């Protein structure tokens, strides 16, 4: 195997590792494969059915190459870690905005938060009496096992 081919494969492997870590949430490998296949499919469509190594490399490593370029041509472990953390938190922030944004303008206001809280409260207040009782909380899952709601087997002794 030629040295350039080995280097290219090593670079692709590194980019794959970086990408996988950046999406290290639920089903990270599956999301990574889907993203990779979507980028490759788009590159192939844009190039009349075939792609060269340079096109493949561009489709696979655009973010990583930009990160290297933005940092003077070299990356340290700390710079890669910072970029991965930023990417992870940006994804989380996008999900939060999408979940709460009632106007669809990509911003979050106090009214958006209050609106979301009212919806969740209404769902939990199963008997519509304007109060949430321990018996109305789900058994387990996201709400039912929280310590402050007595989900630890204390029968609500430590509810606040």
Helix content: 55-70%
Shape: elongated
Strand content: under 5%
Unreliable stretches: 20-26, 144-160
Rounded average pLDDT: 76
Query: How many helices?
Result: 6
Topology order in helix (H) and strand (E) letters: HHHHHH
For the largest beta-sheet, the strand count, sense and barrel status come to: none
Structural class estimated from helices and strands: mainly alpha
Based on DSSP secondary structure assignment, what is the total number of beta strands? 0
Ends distance: 66 Å
Gyration radius, in Å: 23 Å
Domain EF-hand: 112-147
Keywords: Signal
Region (Disordered): 131-160
Protein name: EF-hand domain-containing protein
Give your account of this protein's structure:
- With 160 residues, this protein is mostly helical.
- Helix content is 62%, strand content 0%.
- The chain has a domain at 1-75.
- Helix 1 (3-22) packs across helix 3 (53-70), helix 1 packs across helix 4 (77-100) and helix 2 (28-46) crosses helix 3.
- The chain is elongated and about 65 Å long.
- Mean pLDDT is 76; it is low at 20-26 and 144-160.
Indicate the topology.
Layout: H1 3-22, H2 28-46, H3 53-70, H4 77-100, H5 110-124, H6 141-144
Helix pairs in contact: 1-3, 1-4, 2-3
Report a brief summary of the structure.
This protein has 160 residues and is mostly helical. The protein has six helices and no strands.
Record keyword descriptors for this entry.
mainly alpha
């Amino acid at each position: 195997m030629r040295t350039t081919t080995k280097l290219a494969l090593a670079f692709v492997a590194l980019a794959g590792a970086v990408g996988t870590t950046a999406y290290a949430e639920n089903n990270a490998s599956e999301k990574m494969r889907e993203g990779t296949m979507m980028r490759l499919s788009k590159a192939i469509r844009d190039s009349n059915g075939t792609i060269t190594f340079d096109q493949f490399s561009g489709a696979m490593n655009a973010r990583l190459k930009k990160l290297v370029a933005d940092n003077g041509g070299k990356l340290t472990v700390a710079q890669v870690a910072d970029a991965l953390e930023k990417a992870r938190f940006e994804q989380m922030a996008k999900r939060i905005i999408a979940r709460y944004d009632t106007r669809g303008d990509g911003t979050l206001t106090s009214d958006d938060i209050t609106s979301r809280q009212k919806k969740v409260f209404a769902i939990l207040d199963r008997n519509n009496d304007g109060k949430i009782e321990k018996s109305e909380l789900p058994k387990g899952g996201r709400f039912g096992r929280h310590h402050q709601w007595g989900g630890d087997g204390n029968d609500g002794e430590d509810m606040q």
